[in-house]
Amino acid sequence: MDTITSLETPAETTYLNCIRCGLCLSVCPTYREHLNETASPRGRVALARKGLEGQLELSSNLFEQMYSCFTCMACNDICPVGIRPAELTLSMRYVQEQKHPANWKKALFEGILPHPERLEAATLPLRLYELMGIRRLIYALGIMHRMPKQIRDMEAMLPRLPKRPLRRVLPEITDARNETRYRVGFFLGCAQSLLFAEESAATVRVLSRNGCTVITPKEVECCGMPARGYGRLDLVRTQAKHNISVFERYQVDVIVTDCATCGSTLKEYGTYLKDDPAWAERSAAFSGRVRDVSEFLAEIPLEKPKGKIQARITYHDPCHLRRAQQVWKQPRELMKLIDGIELVELPESDWCCGSAGSQLVTHYDTSLQVLNRKLSNIQSTQAQLVASGCPGCQMQLNTGIRRRGLNLRVVHPVTLLDEAYEASNE
Amino acid sequence: MNDHLIGQLVDLLGKDSVLCTPEDLAVYSYDGTFVEGYPDAVVLPTTTEQISEVIKLAAETHTPIVPRGMGSGLAAGSVPAINGGVVVSLTRMNHILEIDTDNSVIHTEAGVVTADLQGEVEKLGLFYPPDPSSIRHSTVGGNIACNAGGPRCLKYGVTGDYVLGLTVVLADGRILKTGGKPIKDVTGYDMNALFTGSEGTLGLITEALLRLIAKPRYARTALAEFASLDDAARTVNSILKAGIVPASLELMDQTAIICIEESLHLGLNLNVEASLIIETDGADEQTVRRDIENAVRICQVSSAQSVKMAKDEAERANLWKARRSMSPSLARKAPNKLGEDITVPRSAIPEVIQRLRSISTKYGLPIVIFGHAGDGNLHPNILFDKREPGQWQKVEQMVAEIFEASLAVGGTLSGEHGVGMLKRPYLERALGLVSIDVQRHIKQALDPLNILNPGKIFSV
To answer: Tag placement on chain A: N or C end, fewer CB within 10 Å?
Structure first.
């Protein structure tokens, strides 16, 4: 067994007091599907501890159990002792990368993701696929039905893709429609720019309508969550420093994002950099200014939309919003502002949808099982729309809807607000 | 264990249902205690027949079988006592087979989570009362095997009081069905009672018929805070002697309250020595209210510092959330805790609390006290750090003295956790030689090879 003393490992306090009561099993999506302790938070904490204390080899199978966690954080929330099993699995992934760095992760998380141009170039085929009508053709000819199931499901994740990445379209400064009351920095996330461009365009319109001058710096990089999920905390720190520096160049009151995942990561910058003297204060100041768009809109006086949306709507809580940021009332309140909307509470609204970033790719079967539970709950509400402010959740829900052939639209809550505003313009 | 047996298990159950990587074995080496013992393999069967076949294989090869639900036990009952053997996890037998509303009976597989079972029957206006604090992370099969209790047992009785019938796989693989849907049955020995609480040493419970009752329509809950722990203990008796039968009557001492507050931030008063949670329930709103008001009045004359009634369902839910998180939240204070569940005649509660406090003083380690005071069932929890030299020896001595204290006032070792491995050394002292001898003969008759959860309750 090689030494791990030179590595950045989780502190003893992050696992020592786990008394193995098992309460976390009751809320863990992977445990509830597999009904196997190995796929449970308590099991992962035990494995991490035994691995770090030398009772078990830090084997690839041990690390695989860290990756089988969907990091939905339900265990963090329920633990009466204050252990954060989901956090521990992420820290263990970093241990593995320090021991045995994977080349493909370097290529992807260091070579492509932090560089918006490269990321946009790499995803060009996807946009061409949509724009040149290939996607329509493939469906029309029934080719998609002959694809392997997993390919089909992954394809179904994709929303209608924008012609151009929003980063290239959105002006750096969008003035408030009337008097400027707030200077808002907008953190445009990769998925929002590349896949859900319409949503972020809507976010900027809604902010501008409500007294915000919106500044969208174009040189921001990926928030860092993908690298975090794949154990490259070192890269997250580099990306964090870059993004903090970018926003420091602008005088903004708050930094708003409409991506639950980006928001949760940006709010963690202060934690990631707390031991770096040069960055501790700067990162804490940055994180303190970050708001999810629904959180920010709930803090400011809002224009009541005059347009109506006649629809039965339910809301799925993204883990990165409800648990990572404790934001769950605000999006519901926002939608209730709109006349005509009938908001039905989703059973187990905060149960993970199974996306967890890329689990549909890496843990296909489990991801689908977790998704099925979510879909059955959604169907029980008989809603026509399901709202959720997270691109990962939206893509996962899209897959599920396509699989079951449901007549359901997935939307960002702010999109609805924007539609209600726009309707009153007409 | 040889690869041959593992191969046979795989043939029987399929690859996904047999686990034997070092990581799998490590996570099946523990339960809700700090005790560990590694199995050779873990199987996750889905039918009674599969379990029967697994046990036949085990009998041929004299392989120990360790049954397990969700592993929340507090007596190391589902930890392999001697390294090796096969852990049989019943978590995948998690189907409710029938809810018979005409007879108020549920037919369930053993791996159903108790809270899920309750949720399902409550949708139909029915009620399954046993409510161990581990209700969300324990299985109904585990509850039966340990005859689990809980706060509501004061009024409604323990798990065993609801068992009408069982499907049990015996040590030779035969499948035994006990009891049935009739609620009265004196045909032969009471086999339900024999297997209930047998901790997997006599057979593996795979299905159960459980009695249900009508769901009480009203519940009122109050929190009474006392400057003195003794006053709180005495109040328990005053309430019960007044002819009130609360659904629950729970006590927690100051350290317990502090731990809960740190964990849940409910705004509890930390400057009191003890609190009582009192709940009344029933079908008639007025009776429920009159009972709780009477209980509140008794608390007030018994010098309670303050008595508050839960205003709404949310406040009530919070109080119970606090109570349920009690035991695990103690780990905020120390890396290890050992929770006992002595039960004494309720008149002896004040005295046994005095004795527990002097044990704590004598050894210099904290003993947190909380529990189901209404039925005399207390959970003294010793907080310690196993890594500190000498502490474990101290804890062992303290445990022995805690049991002595309970027996001295006419109490017993365990009200609801069971014996498992942790209480085994004290069993003879509690039961006497004749009782142990009779029990050994029962074990011998049902499991002559001693392959079913060996090393639990007593040595054979």
So the answer is: C
- Residues on chain A touching B138 (C-beta within 8 angstroms): 22
Give every CB contact of residue A406 below 8 A, 6+ residues apart in sequence.
A375, A379, A400
Right CATH number for B329-419 from 3.40.50.720, 3.40.50.300, 3.40.800.20, 3.30.70.2740? 3.30.70.2740
- Choosing among 2.30.170.40, 3.30.43.10, 3.20.10.10, 3.40.50.300, the CATH entry for B3-89 is 3.30.43.10
Domains recognised in chain A with CATH numbers? 12-99 (1.10.1060.10), 105-157 (no CATH), 166-298 (1.20.1050), 305-425 (3.40.50.1860)
Contact B367/B357 with Cβ under 8 angstroms?
yes
Q: What does DSSP say about strands A385-387 and A308-315: parallel, antiparallel, or unpaired?
A: parallel
pTM exceeding the 0.90 threshold for the entire prediction: yes
Q: Which of A24, A37, A82 sits opposite B27 (nearest CB)?
A: A37
Contacts of A63 in chain B (CB under 8 A): none
Residues in B closer than 8 angstroms to A14, CB to CB, are none
Please choose, from the candidates B377, B260, B265, B378, the residue with its C-alpha nearest in 3D space to the C-alpha of residue B328. Answer: B260
Substitution target from B27, B259, B323 for chain A, most A beta carbons within 10 A: B27
Interface of B with A in 57-76 (CB under 8 A): 70-72
pLDDT tens-digit series, residues A254-292: 999 999 999 999 999 999 999 999 999 999 999 999 999
> What whole-number distance in Å separates Cα of residue A68 and Cα of residue A367?
10
> Do A21 and B327 make contact, defined as CB atoms within 8 angstroms?
yes
What is the ipTM metric for this complex?
A: 0.94
Interface of A with B (CB under 8 A): 16-26, 35-38, 40, 42-43, 46-47, 50, 55-57, 59, 61-62, 65, 79-82
Q: Contact, B256 vs B330, CB < 8 A?
A: yes
B335 and A17 within 8 Å at the Cβ level: the answer is yes
Find residues 122-161 of chain B whose CB sits inside 8 Å of chain A: 134, 136-138
Contact indicator for B375, B417 with CB cutoff of 8 Å: no
pLDDT per position in chain A (426 positions), as tens? 456 678 999 999 999 989 999 999 999 999 999 999 999 999 999 999 999 999 999 999 999 999 999 999 999 999 988 999 999 999 999 999 999 999 999 999 999 999 999 999 988 888 888 888 888 888 888 888 788 888 888 888 888 889 899 999 999 999 999 999 999 999 999 999 999 999 999 999 999 999 999 999 999 999 999 999 999 999 999 999 999 999 999 999 999 999 999 999 999 999 999 999 999 999 999 999 999 999 999 999 999 999 999 999 999 999 999 999 999 999 999 999 999 999 999 999 999 999 988 888 899 999 999 999 999 999 999 999 999 999 999 999 999 999 999 999 999 999 999 999 998 765
Q: Is B181 part of the contact surface with chain A (CB cutoff 8 Å)?
A: no
- Cβ distance A22 to B331 less than 8 Å, yes or no, reads no
- In this structure, which topology does domain B96-214 adopt according to CATH? 3.30.465
The verdict on a CB contact (< 8 Å) between B263 and A80 is yes
CA distance A383 to B266: 35
Please report the number of interchain residue pairs, chain A to chain B, with beta-carbon separation below 8 angstroms: 100
Across the interface, which of B27, B115, B328 has its CB nearest the CB of A19? B328
Domain B218-328: top CATH class? alpha beta
Please report, for chain B, the start and end positions of each structural domain, with discontinuous segments joined by +.
3-89, 96-214, 218-328, 329-419
Helix, coil or strand: residue B100: strand
Q: Is B128 exposed, middle or buried (0-12, 13-18, 19+ CB in 10 A)?
A: buried
Per-window interface: B 278-337 vs A, CB < 8 A: 325, 327-332, 334-337
Distance, in Å, from the CA atom of A69 to the CA atom of A90, rounded to the nearest integer, reads 9
CATH topology match: B218-328 vs B329-419: yes
CB atoms B24 and A42 under 8 Å: no
B23 to A81: CB separation less than 8 angstroms, yes or no: no
Q: Taking CB atoms and an 8 Å limit, are A19 and B332 in contact across chains?
A: no
Helix, strand, coil percentages for chain A (3-state, nearest 5): 55, 10, 35
